[in-house]
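Hello support,

Our group uses your service weekly, and this is the first time we've seen a run hang past the timeout. The protein is Putrescine oxidase. I'm not sure whether the cause is the sequence or the server load. Input pasted verbatim:
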Amino acid sequence: MTSQHLPGDAPTAPLDRDVVVVGAGPAGLMAARTLAAAGRSVVVLEARDRVGGRTWSDVVDGAFLEIGGQWVSPDQTELLGLVDELGLSTFPRYREGRSVYRTPEGEVVQYDGLELPVGERTAAEMRRLTALLDDLAAEIGCHEPWAHPRATELDRISFHHWLREVSADEQACDNIGLFIAGGMLTKPAHAFSALQAVLMAASAGSFSNLLDDAFILDRRVVGGMQSVSETMADRLDVRLATPVRTIRTTADGVVVESDHVTVTARHVVVAVPPNLYSRISYDPPLPRRQHQMHQHLSLGLVIKVHAVYTTPFWRDAGLSGTCFGATALVQEVYDNTNHGDDRGTLVGFVSDEKADRLLELDPADRRAEVLASIADYLGPQALEPLVYHESDWASEEWTRGAYAASFDLGGLSRYGKDQTAPVGRIHWASSDTAAEGYQHVDGALRRGRAVAEEIAASA
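Update from on-call engineer: The timeout came from a worker crash unrelated to the input. Re-ran successfully.
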């Protein structure tokens, strides 16, 4: 039965467990669930006052919003299997009708199918670049990209500059870059390597899958993605609002100290984003290589914008609500209407340097600019939502960015093999270090299960 609770004023008596898990996101909860099923005693310590990590659903001004991660694609079998096992269900994202593309010159064009409505020369170049990236993703793969003979070469050049080395079509490069830079890693394409881009594509099965919004953004969980974590947590011992401060390694195991409870255990699973590893003190200190590696990993920056309307007005105009514009402020827009809701919801994304500028504005001016950008795609009705909300994960104390961590130039080939290597009895689990499902809930679940199985096999 559940033991999910907030701490009282007085410290809790020390605990003795087989394993302590730091972080109650999907990775940590899957690790705890798997270990508990294997007969191990487990406690989960979570800094926030809720479970779910980077998945979070909330009601804002009467509207149910998925503030964090939410989509499920057909290849995410770990997540789909768990959803079914937990008795949850999914529903398809609305995508009937024409999509909208905003050209670099500001022209808005409606189109059918997956190919953006660009000139034939640019379209042909985009197909060529897509095939090139598909080939690299298939050849290099997502499990050990750092071990490939071309790893160093591809890791020393930014994705921006690599694209322009292999193509002279600027619009094609910008459009291809959008689907990894803005759409996934949420960093400027000059800030991460071509190898990191190939890993992103390989983790989704291919670069073509990233271009296919009907694939990569296929379904949502009824009741929100956070409900997956909430349901897992229902039968686990989870201590909320309990940030871990110190992990001490002893001759017999570990001692994990938080503000409210100290846990003695044989193993600890650190299931938080890599940028938060250094929020914890380690005694003895982590090895030099771990310290160096953590300084080369960082999260991106994206603002997820929610706009709720009386009706999904774009559908009446024969539009799907899917919009793209590599040079627009809001580079992506999708129909995000909730299951069984008569109202219409749009979700849009403003990433990397565009988000920097936007966050310098006061809230009213920021809202006006965002809605004007959405209205460029879908018309003036977009200017007047019933509910407007911005998810700014970079301001979250226990996240500090979105969607996930990636390496800077040269970091993946240099440190990739060390990402998941245990340090004694300290183990690491997060979507940021997954192969399949990298930076998705599916990847978090895979890493949580894998770490738990390693621990169970060792004891």
